[in-house]
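Weekly structure sync, notes
Attendees: PL (lead), two postdocs, one rotation student
Agenda item 3: pending single-chain targets
PL asked that the sequence for the first pending target be pasted directly into the notes so everyone works from the same version. It is reproduced below exactly as submitted, 193 residues in total.
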Amino acid sequence: MKELEERINKDGRVLGKDVLKVDSFLNHQIDPVLMEKMGEEFYNHFKDANVTKILTVESSGIAPAVMTGLQFQVPVVFARKHKSVTLKDDLYTSEVYSFTKKTSNHISISKKYLSSDDNVLIIDDFLANGQAVNGLNEIVDAAGANIAGIGIVIEKSFQKGRQLIDKEKIPVYSLARIKAFEDGHVVFGKEDE
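Predicted structure, written out during the meeting:
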């Protein structure tokens, strides 16, 4: 998605050799116009997949997931990272390690919001090492639901996440694929290009 790549070049900041900070438009401050365009792009790509639910992890995946759900006119369910008094029983859970935060989280979804009748589109903000997507896949499997596809806002194709998903033969569509970070700049494309 050209507009997203341009925004990453304009406002994204490369930190170290594997972190991209995009908090000015994606995961702290949110640009709703850009999110709406992302939702349209995911819809156009997966519109024939008979999607019944959009699934993501809190919190950075929620904005693009909601905009995608709006396009599909289907509910959006997000996995919670922290238990609460209102979400403690009858849960699908998985453990997810965050490389940027250096912590593990148990993500949870109430069983009443995901069933074997669902055809799920997973939406997430980043694909790097594949931990969040893998955790969501485990939850979908536990529910007996089907994964229609995975939509990623920003993929770091130089990390192993995409390879893990490709082994599962799940359709993946990334709006921006990053091949490398070079001298503080983003190089777009697939790693093998």
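Discussion points:
- The CA atoms of residues 67 and 109 lie 20 Å apart.
- The first helix runs from residue 2 to 11.
Action: rotation student to compare against the earlier draft before next sync.
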